[in-house]
Amino acid sequence: MSLAAWAGRTFVYRAPRERDRCPACDSPRLAALAVHRLQTRIDGRRTGLVSGCEDCGLVFVNPAPSAAELSAMYAPTGEWAEGRLQDAAPAGPPKPGGSGSWPRLFDPIRGELDVTRPPAGAKVLDFGCGTGKFLDVLGACGWETYGIEPALDDAFSRHRRLFEIPSTPTFDLVIVHHVLEHVLNPLGLLQQLAASARLGALALVAGPRLDTLPVHQDYRYVISRVHVTSYTSTCMIGLLARAGWQAVAPPADEVTIAGGRKTAARMRLLAKRVDRQPPLPARPLDAAREALRGYYEQVGPAPPRWIRLAARRQERRG
């Protein structure tokens, strides 16, 4: 850490209960990227930071919720479950397995695996499966379907429920769809999922996309009190590599969502389980810095040069 960075962290401002190490890779090489307004006071203060890791590129709210607070939010009676139940459409009978647009999510690996025609006995795990919509269509195609979901029970009248990720190679396909932005240690989760996947298995990872922030300008979608971690494609490819997954294609600039609409706010990546770590990206935090710079150039005002000094001023203003 440079002398200037040390002085800033020591004398200018420290967020309440601020983390000094990356929650993913445990690196101490953190940078303050933005000021983050806390929803409630912590130790009498309302001003936190958005921090970034120089070694893996992870961006996260600092302080982040505790493990207990996250468990309460995603419990069956928690805030997240209540919101999902209000938003969820009534479950109807599963559609024919190959119908609809969902198979296009897997177009980059179609030559290797047609998800609508899985090999006999192929198993899929959807981590954070919600109401089980992905598992419904995959099950209709012939997959053996497994899910993990702490907040809702809806899926498990139709699919096998797991409460822990298996530690032995079991699955041929793993789905992590809009989950990683809610967890504090995405690398640990990706490593556990890698241990549960057979060599050559495939993973679909999706979530809000930080590097396209200047285009979609939805700041609260990529980083907020609920989306506690944030990812550029560079960061996500690097975290996957550290966990034993190799990205098989770069993410598209835009993806298609419900109603056929296109959006740059979401990232989808396909990765393969490999037996050795792929190369890691160089300077993985640069993409996040560039995204935030471009965002503020679009919406203004320009971010302060000294983030910690700005945080102290904001806290003094109340």
Identify the notable features of this structure and list them briefly.
four-stranded antiparallel sheet, seven-stranded mixed sheet, Rossmann fold, 318 residues, single chain, alpha/beta
Summarize, please.
This protein is α/β, with parallel strands linked by helices and about 325 residues long. The protein has helices at about 5-10, 65-75, 80-85, 135-140, 185-195, 215, 220, 235-245, 285-300, 305-315, and strands spanning about 30-40, 45-55, 60, 125, 145-150, 160, 170-175, 195-210, 230, 245, 255, 260-265, 265-275.
CATH architecture: 3-Layer(aba) Sandwich
Q: What is the global morphology?
A: globular
Q: What is the chains' assembly state?
A: single chain
Q: Outline the biggest β-sheet.
A: 7 strands, mixed
Strand content: 15-25%
Order of helices and strands: HEEEHHEHEEEHEHHEHEEEEHH
Strand order of the largest sheet: 6-5-4-7-8-13-10
Q: How much helicity do the residues have?
A: 25-40%
Low-confidence stretches: none
The chain-level mean pLDDT equals: 90
Count of strand segments: 13
Name of the CATH first level:
Alpha Beta
CATH topology (fold) name? Rossmann fold
The separation of the N and C termini measures 30 Å
- Rg over CA atoms, rounded to whole Å, is 20 Å
Return the domain count.
Answer: 1
The CATH fourth-level homologous superfamily: Vaccinia Virus protein VP39
Secondary structural class: alpha/beta
What is the number of helical segments per DSSP (H or I, 4+ residues)? 10
